[in-house]
Design brief:
4-stranded mixed sheet, single chain
């Protein structure tokens, strides 16, 4: 399925005017939440809803953007509406890589406070550039601290990591 998502993401990306990238990325990012994804998957997989109703929903979802309207019609013709929620995430990652605008992924145990956001923003500006986007991920398995990932680099300042380092030192 990943290959299919890649094909649709490439097709959409290449069919769009460059001036629309930011608007489409913003729309897709806003629709890529867990809640939206589950609702859309349920809607598009529901066999009691007609294809025409699914198309109309997709057209409303994509607004007046002609590239997205054509994309929705392509999914309609190929009977691939169930891919829409997964395409959002895949397209965002694909477009960011193409634009060399890969976000710093920040993993923390709870939603970040304003102070944490400011400190992370300052660190990212100093180390990766002021236009580098930041994406926060709340992960309940992190006891505390923070993990930053950017491209192939990781800075692990979590309590989990410190605990594991301590265990290794004590075992030797």
């Amino acid at each position: 399925m990943k290959k299919l998502l890649e094909i649709y993401s490439k097709g959409l990306y290449s069919s769009m005017d460059e001036s629309l990238y930011e608007d489409v990325l913003s729309l897709f990012q806003s629709l890529d939440s867990k809640e939206h994804k589950e609702q859309m998957q349920s809607f598009f997989k529901n066999k009691t809803i007609s294809k025409k109703d699914k198309l109309n929903f997709a057209l409303d979802l994509f607004g007046h953007n002609q590239a997205l309207q054509a994309f929705a019609k392509t999914l309609f013709n190929n009977n691939r509406f169930e891919l829409i929620p997964d395409i959002f995430k895949h397209f965002v990652e694909f477009a960011q890589k193409k634009q060399d605008n890969i976000p710093v992924r920040v993993s923390i145990s709870s939603p970040p406070t304003d102070e944490i956001k400011e400190r992370v923003l300052e660190f990212v500006k100093q180390n990766f550039g002021s236009s580098t986007p930041i994406k926060y991920e709340v992960k309940k398995n992190i006891l505390g601290g923070i993990i930053l990932k950017y491209k192939d680099n990781e800075i692990d300042l979590s309590i989990n990591n410190k605990y594991n380092e301590l265990k290794i030192m004590l075992a030797t």
